[in-house]
Model the fold of this input.
Amino acid sequence: MIRGVHHAAISTPNLERALAFYRDLLGFAPIFEFAWPAGSEVADQITGLRRSAARAVMLRAGNVVIELFQYESPTPRPADPQRPVCDHGYTHLCLDVKDVDAEYQRLRAAGVVFHCPPQDIGAAIRTTYGRDPDGNVVEFQEVLDPQSPIALDLEA
Done:
């Protein structure tokens, strides 16, 4: 029985830079850190890699948990920091916010690159896409109608 989503994992070439974004700028709190050295048979079996080695941090904000990985081995291929969201694979992580316009201004002032200012997309939703330091797309969405079927009740 599937109970729900536990976390999204992101591989980064620079764990400290990713932490500065997700922890320091977005306010996610670290909840767990771990690492494994090259030669860990269990880690290699799980990841499908050979001689893998990595450091990882799990962070939480509300009902969202993000796991950041920095692999030391094998050498990762660099990602395109401007990968179009239509390409197959991870397209974006969506974060629920209370005031999307204020978050947009705050994050833009901190250097976050956005595709556009927040937009009304109907169904009482305002949203915008920004990019983390590695180019991963993060959506900042405000659901204006608490009765909307996609509204989250994070106060409960």
